[in-house]
Structure formats: C-alpha cells, structure tokens
Amino acid sequence: MAKKSDVTLHPTRNTMSENTRGAMVGLLQKHLGTAIDVTYAAKQAHWNVKGMNFIAVHKLFDELHEKAEGYVDEIAERLTALGGQAVGTVQGASANTILEPYPTDLVDSEGHLKRLADHYANWGAAIREGISEADDAGDDLTADLLTGVGRGVEEALYFLESHFQSK
Ligand SMILES: [Fe+2]
C-alpha cells in the first residue's frame, strides 16, 4: 500500500490523484465514525426512552437508527472505493467521531429528542464543511454522497425538533 500524508491507500485504477484520495479517505473516516456513533445513539434512545409519547418516539428513534445504518454503509464503501481502509469497529468509531458521547442515563423523551437533535445538528454542520472540502478537492462524487447524507441528517433534525419547537 502507498503511503500519502497520514492515510495509507490500496492501489486502484481510479484516476483521481493519491493526494486527493488520501484527503477524501481522511474526511470520510471521520464521517464513518460519526455515522456509527449516531446509529447507536439512536438505538440508545430507542431502548431507554420513557414518557407519554413513548410509542411514537420509540419508533422514530428506530427509524433514525435504520437510516443512519444506511449512511454507515454508503460512507464506508465510498471510502474503500477510493483505496482506503474503513475503520468500522466500535473502538475505531469512538476514536474518529466528531460528537460528544451520548449520555447513557437519559430517560425522558424530551431529553432524548433534544440530545439527539444536538447530535444531528453538529453532524449536519460537519457534513456541510465536508461537502465544501470535497468540492475544493475536485471530488464531486464524495461531495454528492455527503450531500445526500446531509439532506437525510437535516430531515432527521427537523423530525426531532418538531416535538419541542411549537413556540
Ligand atoms: Fe427495537
């Protein structure tokens, strides 16, 4: 494997430069860790939430989990298509995520909705930065992937915030 900056790449017939691929693999590794983190933050909320609107939020959190799992796979496979080595273990994700740890003692639904909204808002901001980074690097396909993920992440933020945003 060739070594460029701090990212090791597998050989590929992809014609994008090694520098660009290395930069995009670094960017995607961060979003892979974050996507895995969000996937299990949503499950943490799904399993532990309690309150009068229990069944609605219990189901919503599971849907968010499933969507986030889809992003995990899309991000990992773009990363490996560029010659990268996906870091998809819990320990690796924990080292790479941009998010603060999700609390394990939360119970009430408003707490989970607000805390998950923080996760999605922070990830959404990082995704928008990542889209610009990919655009500047000339990698339209990574920018497009992150755009799709970002649209889903901002939709999730809207679903979460709509529970406590009526005033
Ligand atoms: Fe379940």
Question: Would you summarize the structure shown here?
Answer:
The chain has helices spanning 18-48, 54-81, 90-96, 109-137, 140-161; strands spanning 2-4, 7-9.
Spans where pLDDT lies below 50 across 5 or more residues: none
User: Ions, cofactors, ligands: which are bound?
Assistant: fe (ii) ion
Write out the CATH superfamily name: Ferritin, core subunit, four-helix bundle
Radius of gyration: 17 Å
The CATH topology name reads: Ferritin
- Largest sheet report: 2 strands, antiparallel
Structural class: mainly alpha
Q: How would you characterize this protein structure?
A:
The chain has 167 residues and is mainly alpha-helical. The chain has one domain: Up-down Bundle (Ferritin). The chain contains 5 helices and 2 strands. A two-stranded antiparallel ribbon has the order 1-2. A hairpin with a 2-residue loop joins strand 1 (2-4) and strand 2. Helix 1 packs antiparallel against helix 2, helix 1 (18-48) packs across helix 3 and helix 4 runs antiparallel to helix 5. The model has no long low-confidence stretch (mean pLDDT 95). Residues 46, 62 line the site of fe (ii) ion.
What labels describe this entry?
Ferritin-like; 167 residues; binds fe (ii) ion; mainly alpha; 70% helix; DNA starvation/stationary phase protection protein Dps; two-stranded antiparallel ribbon; 4% strand; DPS_DNA-bd_CS; Ferritin; Ferritin-like_SF; 2 strands
